[in-house]
């Protein structure tokens, strides 16, 4: 099919504008150019921040019913154009069309939850008379917007993860500037289109396309930006935290999630769930399954079924409904994963299946007997590679699960509630799924990690908390509150 380049503009404070330079957006499947977006400059970002200062005032003064109407209208627009949105995700990113369609459905749901949560941003009364001398005081606190939020987003969920920042920001009366990943800017621009169509007043939202290395610092360090909401890798996250200065920080970072499978589990179900969790989005998923700890009595059965299911995976054209897994986001990323697997194998890991690279495609890969001293034993792979470990009992599995720097989500398969509860209390993670893999999330739940997996929580209600601050109101009355 001939490529039709439309040459996208970026969305600066309500206006669609060009830049002096462009970025080519490529389909990782065949490296073809699918579109271009402007490469914004530091000056563009400065202008954008100046406009957002006005936008923050407009946003804060927008009544709740109007915020709800706009967010709902944006959700409806995306739902009505869901095929177009899914195609874009599946072209610029590495998701298959089935995975992309699911992401669009989730984005609509995310925005609908945002619209609902807008009416629930409230405070509570404060019993000031608990302190002697304050008997004649009454009051309360309520939550108010913080101003301008700088959002920086990754490539792997290029629509819904942007909606997880834009929706709560608008719901809570803030202005927001989004810098999407350079490789997947089109879906974020389409989200801006939905909000423009929904009638969002200009200056509240900007989606500025450009390289993090060129425009990131301006956004991160500018004193008018009151919060940085970042989703991405741990290295970039740590750099941003160092530079940001005195502002709120929300960090949704990476992980190498563990799943424990005990001997009393339903093994078929555990295999189905962990295979899907390991290879969703070609393993480029922050809560994807990377390490599986299987009790020794069922190890052979689990391994056989897991490898069999993995080899049934259909790898290929992302736009085909029959495809289970597409390419990695770039050939460079596939080469990085290949190098990690090769290093593990050279040090003694056993390759059970996979390990083959073809351009940006890397076959679903299963390893066992992974030596402690190879990188993938402790670091995030962010590719379609899963590590099988044999363990004697639940205590060893928990101990090994925790022996990494990350802690986003985990899973445990067991019918024993005592063992499940032990995992719940002892595992260092932000979420634990019982009889499911780590790769389970709904958009309304608190989502985030401990240790190097992040700071703060997303999930609409929780993001709104982070994006607002309490303001205390206290009335000093002429009579005591107890004198009526
Ligand atoms: P990344 O390389 O860290 O990039 C993420 C975003 O940060 C991009 O927009 C990037 O811009 C920008 N950026 C990079 N360095 C920056 C800097 N110094 N200052 C300002 N902006 C900067 O991550 P990725 O490869 O896109 O995504 C993969 C990572 O995200 C994985 O580690 C994954 O686990 C994590 N992730 C976490 C969650 C979660 O919710 N916990 C969800 C999804 C993904 P450019 O594109 O221009 O470089």
What can you see in these coordinates?
With 484 residues, this protein is α/β, with parallel strands linked by helices. It folds into 2 domains: 267 residues, Aldehyde Dehydrogenase, Chain A, domain 1 (3-Layer(aba) Sandwich), CATH 3.40.605.10; 177 residues, Aldehyde Dehydrogenase, Chain A, domain 2, CATH 3.40.309. Helix content is 38%, strand content 21%. The strands form 6 sheets. A 7-stranded mixed β-sheet has the order 14-17-18-13-12-19-20, with helices on both faces. The protein has a 6-stranded mixed β-sheet with strand order 9-8-7-10-11-21, with helices on both faces. α3 packs across α4. It is globular and about 75 Å long. The mean pLDDT is 96. The structure holds NADP nicotinamide-adenine-dinucleotide phosphate. The site of NADP nicotinamide-adenine-dinucleotide phosphate has 29 residues, from α7 and α8. NADP nicotinamide-adenine-dinucleotide phosphate binds next to α7 and α8.
Count of individual helical segments: 14
User: What is the CATH superfamily label of the largest domain?
Assistant: Aldehyde Dehydrogenase, Chain A, domain 1
Tally of structural domains: 2
Bound molecules: NADP nicotinamide-adenine-dinucleotide phosphate
Secondary structure: helix percent: 25-40%
Q: Beta-strand level of the residues, as a percent range?
A: 15-25%
- Subunit organisation of the chains: single chain
Q: Which ranges are low-confidence, i.e. pLDDT below 50, for 5 or more consecutive residues? A: none
- Describe the biggest sheet? 7 strands, mixed
CATH class of the largest domain: Alpha Beta
Rg of Cα set: 24 Å
């Amino acid at each position: 099919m001939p490529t039709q380049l439309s040459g996208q503009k970026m969305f600066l404070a309500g206006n669609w504008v060009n830049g002096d330079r462009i970025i080519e957006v490529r389909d990782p499947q065949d490296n073809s150019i699918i579109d271009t977006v402007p490469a914004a400059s530091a000056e563009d970002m400065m202008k954008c921040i100046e406009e957002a200062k006005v936008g923050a005032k407009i946003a804060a003064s927008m009544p709740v019913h109007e915020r709800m109407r706009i967010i709902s209208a944006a959700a409806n627009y995306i739902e009505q154009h869901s095929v177009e949105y899914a195609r874009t995700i599946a072209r610029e990113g590495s998701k298959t069309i089935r995975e992309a369609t699911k992401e669009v459905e989730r984005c609509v749901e995310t925005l609908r939850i945002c619209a609902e949560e807008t009416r629930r941003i409230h405070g509570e009364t404060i019993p000031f008379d608990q302190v002697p001398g304050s008997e004649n005081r009454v009051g309360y606190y309520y939550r108010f917007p913080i101003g301008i939020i700088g959002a920086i987003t990754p490539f792997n969920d290029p629509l819904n993860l942007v909606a997880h920042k834009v929706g709560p920001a608008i719901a809570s009366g803030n202005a927001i500037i989004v810098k999407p990943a350079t490789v997947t800017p089109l879906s974020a621009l389409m989200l801006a289109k939905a909000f423009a169509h929904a009638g969002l007043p200009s200056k509240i939202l900007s989606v500025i396309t450009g390289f993090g290395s060129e425009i990131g610092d301006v956004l991160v360090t500018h004193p008018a930006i009151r919060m940085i909401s970042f989703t991405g890798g741990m290295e970039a996250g740590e750099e941003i935290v160092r530079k940001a200065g005195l502002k709120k920080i929300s960090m949704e970072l990476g992980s190498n999630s563990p799943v424990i499978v005990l001997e009393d589990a339903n093994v078929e179900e555990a295999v189905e769930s962990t295979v899907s969790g390991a290879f969703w989005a070609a393993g480029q998923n922050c809560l994807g399954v990377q390490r599986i700890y299987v009790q020794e009595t069922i190890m052979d059965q689990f391994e056989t079924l897991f490898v069999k299911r993995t080899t049934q995976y259909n790898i290929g054209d992302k736009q085909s409904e029959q495809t289970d897994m597409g390419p990695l986001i770039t050939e460079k990323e596939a080469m990085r994963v290949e190098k990690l697997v090769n290093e593990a194998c050279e040090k003694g890991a056993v390759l059970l299946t996979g390990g083959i690279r073809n351009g940006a495609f890397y076959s679903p890969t299963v390893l066992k007997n992974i030596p402690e001293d190879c990188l993938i034993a402790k670091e995030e792979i962010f590719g379609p590679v899963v590590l099988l470990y044999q363990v004697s009992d639940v205590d060893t599995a928990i101990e090994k699960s925790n022996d990494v720097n990350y802690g986003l989500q985990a899973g445990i398969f067991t019918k024993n509630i005592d063992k499940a509860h032990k995992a719940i209390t002892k595992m260092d993670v932000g979420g634990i799924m019982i009889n499911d893999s780590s790769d389970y999330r709904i958009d309304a739940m608190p989502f985030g990690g401990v240790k190097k997996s992040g700071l703060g929580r997303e999930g609409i209600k929780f993001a709104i908390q982070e994006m607002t601050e309490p303001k205390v109101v206290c009335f000093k009355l002429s009579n005591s509150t107890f004198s009526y």
